[in-house]
Write a structure and sequence with these properties.
Layout lengths: L2 H22 L6 H4 L12 H26 L13 E3 L5 E3 L21
Antiparallel strand pairs: 1-2
Helix pairs in contact: 1-3
């Protein structure tokens, strides 16, 4: 198992956990805490801490997901290999890396009119 596969598994796991944490929260502020009876001014023990925990875990998982995605960029297979590159001049003409041509003998060359020399 290479490094990129490990990063990919971690990214999927953190993304799943982030979805679960976000789905548990109520968009109107009730969330998991309102199901414990803490919807009004009366707060039961630990209910306020539940919303704080969900809020902090959302930010932590989102930050971890972003960090894993950025770190996985360095582990992509084949990303560091040598590749041909092209340079664009100021006048929009491309200069490409010299390409080697196959060896041709005098017998293989032809003149423009099709007759051999």
């Amino acid at each position: 198992m290479n490094t990129f596969t490990i990063f990919l598994i971690l990214i999927v796991l953190v993304a799943f956990l982030l979805v679960v944490v976000v789905m548990v929260q109520n968009p109107k502020g009730g969330g998991l805490s309102s199901s414990f009876g803490g919807g009004g001014t009366q707060q039961m023990g630990g209910v306020k801490k539940t919303t704080d925990f969900l809020d902090k875990s959302t930010w932590a998982l989102a930050t971890l997901l972003l960090a894993l995605i950025l770190a996985s960029n360095f582990a992509i297979p084949g990303a560091g290999g040598a590749q041909d590159s092209k340079v664009i001049n100021g006048d929009d003409t491309e200069i490409s890396v010299p390409v080697t041509t196959p060896n041709t003998s005098a017998e293989d060359t032809a003149t423009p009119d099709g007759a051999t020399e």
